[in-house]
Amino acid sequence: MLKPAPSQYLHTVRLERGEVPGFSEYPFNIPAVRHLDSLPLHPKVTFFVGENGSGKSTLLEAIAEKLGFSMEGGTKNTNMAMHEYRCALTSKITLSRTHLRPMDGFFLRAESYYNFATLIDELGTWSYGGKSLHEQSHGESFFATMIHRMGGHGIYLFDEPEAALSPQRQMSLLVRMHDLIDDFSQFIIATHSPILMAYPDAWIYQFSEDGIQRIAYEDTDHFQITSRFMRDPKGMIHRLLGTQEDRHAGGAETGGLR
Question: Domain range for residue 149?
């Protein structure tokens, strides 16, 4: 059994299956949730990957809410919610924590970042670089949060951060993540980005109809499909946009692009 690392704050996420009233309604009917028992977390970086609707963001939201973050994102100080959990999964999971307590934390969501930026404008922007997040591009404000608000010794949860970032910015994000990890931080990230999930030694969990399985980076659909496209972009475009026979031969109609 993996022992907690010196900088690890969360060790395991466990679904208390006996407390679930049934697995026929959302979100407990999602295969990844329905089959969930205990999920160990990497001391540094854990990735949740899978198609939209696979449950990766749902589980990440439940973890974030269990830690005390707002569902809209931000720090624990920006949690304006009442004491009731908004995610039905939250009350049914248990987080196994180490003896360490994080000094910092942030739940970063591309989907609701506009609402968070509005709240920061109301509260004051001094801790986010002194400039309104609304006066910057989506990617710039996202990255300003990484630089000015995340100080290390923390646990950071990101939900599809690549939605706000160019490929170049995604590589810059890897550098910033690495700096924070060197400063005793832990990340849990739901993503579609093959750039981000290339972080060395990270654990990648694939969410699918079969549940949740740990998978090697090179075995992810994200890596394989992107690699194939980059090796032969013209050929891939021809198969995707060609005749029905071309698409069938290339597997494009069913998404089988390997």
Answer: 14-70+93-123+138-233
Q: Which two tokens stand for residue 180?
A: 């924070």
How many domains does the structure of the chain reveal? 1
Tokens of 133: 């997040």
Is 248 within a domain?
Answer: no
The arrangement of strands across the sheet holding 186-190 comes to 104-109, 154-159, 186-190, 45-50, 203-208, 211-215
Nearest-angstrom CA–CA distance, 112 and 152:
23
Instruction: Give the residue among 59, 64, 86, 92 at the shortest CA–CA distance from 76.
Output: 64
The answer to whether 152 touches 180, Cβ cutoff 8 Å, is: yes
**Given the structure tokens 């692009």, which residue do they identify?**
257
Q: Mind listing the pLDDT tens digit for each residue in 42-71?
A: 999 999 999 999 999 999 999 999 999 988
The predicted model scores a pTM of 0.85
* CA distances to 143, 151, 234 from 62, in Å: 24, 24, 42
pLDDT in tens, 96-110: 999 999 999 999 886
First to last CA, the chain: 35
